[in-house]
Amino acid sequence: MSAYQLFSDATLDLPHTTIEELDIQVIPMHFDLAENSYRHFEDERELSLEEFYRQLRAGAPAVTSQITPVVYEDLFEPVLQAGQDILYIAFSSALSGTYQASVLAAEELEEKYPERRVICVDSRSASVGEGLLVYAAALQKEKGIPVDALADWVVRNREHVCHWFTVDDLNHLRRGGRISPVMAVAGTALGIKPVLRVDNEGNLVTAFKVRGRKKAIESILDQMEKTAINPKDQVVIIAHGDCKEDAKSLKHMVKSRFHVKDEIISYVGPIIGTHTGPGMLALVFFGTER
User: Fold this and answer.
1) CB atoms within 10 A of CB 174
2) Which of 5, 163, 177, 221 maximizes the CB count within 10 A of its CB?
3) First-last CA distance in the chain
4) How far, in Å, are 17, 48, 167, 246 from residue 55 at the CA level?
5) In this structure, are residues 10 and 271 in contact, taking their beta carbons and an 8 Å threshold?
6) Nearest-angstrom CA–CA distance, 49 and 62
7) Which parts of the chain fold into alpha helices (H)?
8) From CA 52, how far away is CA 56, in angstroms rounded?
9) What distance in Å separates the CA atoms of residue 43 and residue 174, rounded to the nearest whole number?
């Protein structure tokens, strides 16, 4: 069996320590905040996540950009030269062009290195949904599964990664075109909180709307109760947009209600956080359906 390296991108929003422990290569992604440009690395080397959200709360405009084929080639090629294959699990193609760019780079590199494999898989997931899929894939890799078999495993399991989340400030979803201006204004005035999910194609969709954040969080827990597969055997991920206490509270509720194997709490990085804003709170797990 040929050795291979597992890659993903900075939208996976896993803690840096987890990424290092599982030997996942994460491709940084660019974003602009106010008048400055940054690359988001999971170790926050160019800008801390607390500072990102501080500026976002202060009204600083933020814009994200996708990974180009050239970036993929620059990062993939040394791995191929070292005699390893590559499995890249990408941010949802329904939300970004990164997957398509990676496929172009893979085609170029496989022509240049015909003895090597570069397999790109669309996660059809976002943020810690993508992160949970990559996390689980890395654990499979540690068992010695070959690269083709692991790629097949990812495809079979990606639609079982359930993403449920709510946001605190509707204006960030409005700017990203996820909700209408009328919904943003009316929802803010009435205290309406959307509960969102990622569908089977990897699109971000509003599942339903409730009044108040407490009700939104309860609704997310109800969705886990309906669809979670063997929760006592699962590691679930809770993500937050700089609302640590809410994340800790959700972790306690998940633990007491479902007795899961473990919970990982992680920040939502700037690539996703630009569009969801401060106060975003998410729960992801493996379920029977999204």
Assistant:
1) 19
2) 163
3) 34
4) 25, 11, 17, 20
5) yes
6) 13
7) 16-21, 49-57, 69-81, 98-112, 128-142, 147-157, 170-175, 181-190, 213-227, 244-258, 270-276
8) 6
9) 29
The tokens describing 235, both together, are 């590691």
Nearest to 13 by CA among 147, 195, 165: 165
Express each pLDDT in 199-250 by its tens digit: 999 999 989 889 999 999 999 999 999 999 999 999 999 999 999 999 999 9
Whole-model pTM? 0.94
* pLDDT at 180 exceeding the cut of 80: no
State the Cα–Cα distance between residues 60 and 150, nearest whole angstrom. 41
CB atoms within 10 A of CB 252: 11
Q: Are 66 and 96 in contact (CB under 8 A)?
A: yes
3-class DSSP state of 290: coil
| 191 CB-contact burial (10 Å; exposed 0-12 / middle 13-18 / buried 19+) | exposed
Spell out a b/e string for 18-45, using b for 16 or more CB atoms within 10 Å of the CB, else e: bbeebebebbbbbbbbeeeebebbbebe
Reading the block at residue 128, the tokens are: 């810690």
* Residue 158 identity: R
Q: For the chain, what percentages of helix, strand and coil (3-state, to nearest 5) are there?
A: 45, 25, 30
* Strand arrangement of the beta sheet that strand 62-64 belongs to: 36-40, 29-33, 62-64
